[in-house]
Amino acid sequence: MRKALIVLLLLVPALCPGCQCLNYWLFVFAPAAPPKAVDAEYDGLQDSTVAVVIYADERVLYEYPMVRLDLGMMVGGYLQQNVKKCTVVDPQRVASYQQRNIYWDREGRTELGKKLGADYVLFISLIEYTTHVKGSLNLYRGELIADVALHKVDLPERGSRVWGPDRFHVSFPENAPGGRPAEDDRLVAVETRRRFADRLTKKFYDHKVQPAEDGEEEEQ
Q1: What are the C-alpha distances in Å from 21 to residues 6, 24, 30, 67, 190?
Q2: Which three-class secondary structure string do you get for the chain?
Q3: 7 confidence band (pLDDT: 50, 70, 90)
Q4: What are the phi and psi torsion angles at 20 (to 5°)?
Q5: pTM
Q6: pLDDT digits over 47-95, tens only?
Q7: Model confidence at 186: pLDDT above 60
Q8: Binning pLDDT at 50, 70 and 90, where does residue 130 land?
Q9: What is the rounded (10 degree) CA torsion for 49, 74, 67, 126?
Q10: Which of 199, 183, 167, 169 is nearest to 133 (CA)?
């Protein structure tokens, strides 16, 4: 196979003269660039218990009352899947605590983590969350903007933040700013949360990215 490829490349200039044609065939048969290794920004979650705590204002909760539980389950699932020996506090337990204690957000992050039995609190503050285009009844597009910080529970409250804050902005579908009439609201919601969870949790474990043609990196 290798010999046949070499012969083909040698015959290209004769069969198809011209620089543009040659460049095309060289591009087609060029080997793909090797993936690039990316180190975790914070690698301390191994062998630890993490509570994923999500803040959303009344406006978001009114329209999406299950967003804290749904997003917590998605982020927690990605953490347990990719970070070795990482245990996540049951998102249902976190959501129940928030419902029972209306002033939970006034508690310190370390105090909250201790009450939930966690070593770390991954605090996600939703700034924007929607699954449809504003002002439209049948155009769907997911939009999620959030500030995220990681707190270590056994540190003093003022110095408990060990990573972040970092802002994330995720949309789906990305190439349809006007939305898509054919998309189902549930599908858009799940895919928006999935993309956010994937991008966020990659900050906490080593992974690889594939260089893209436009210079941006595609995560694997």
Answers
A1: 17, 5, 14, 53, 44
A2: CHHHHHHHHHHHHHHCCCHHHHHHHHHHHCCCCCCEEECCCCCCCCCCEEEEEEECCHHHHHHCCCHHHHHHHHHHHHHHHHCCCCEECCHHHHHHHHHHCCCHHHCCHHHHHHHCCCCEEEEEEEEEEEEECCCCCCCEEEEEEEEEEEEECCCCHHHCEEEEEEEEEEEECCCCCCCECCCCHHHHHHHHHHHHHHHHHHHHCCEEEEECCCCCEEEC
A3: very low
A4: -65, -40
A5: 0.79
A6: 999 999 999 999 999 999 999 999 999 999 999 999 999 999 999 999 9
A7: yes
A8: very high
A9: 70
A10: 183
Is pLDDT at 215 greater than 80 in this prediction? no
Cα end-to-end distance, the chain, whole Å: 29
